[in-house]
Design a protein that fits this description.
Blueprint lengths: L1 H15 L6 H4 L2 E3 L9 E3 L5 H10 L8 H18 L5
Antiparallel strand pairs: 1-2
Length: 89
Amino acid sequence: MVNETNESIYSESQRRVPVDTGNLKASGRMTPAVPGNPTASTTYGGTAAAYALIVHETHPTKDEYLVGPAKEAEANLSRAARNAVKVSV
């Protein structure tokens, strides 16, 4: 469930990330959750680190290429987690 959500965030962020030289888009990385480490992540930076945040916050489209997809996926993840946990009395 976590990895599927992370894949969704990464895919949507790749669709939204502004492309000028392509360096920022190419810097996108997705790290899956693994046994013993349930944290998955999607990041941008690398050689584009100096301007990744600036582009994210100030691009004329106002389309937060990473936070937007993460917020949208949050509701789906919460719903999936609630459905995965069954409580019986």
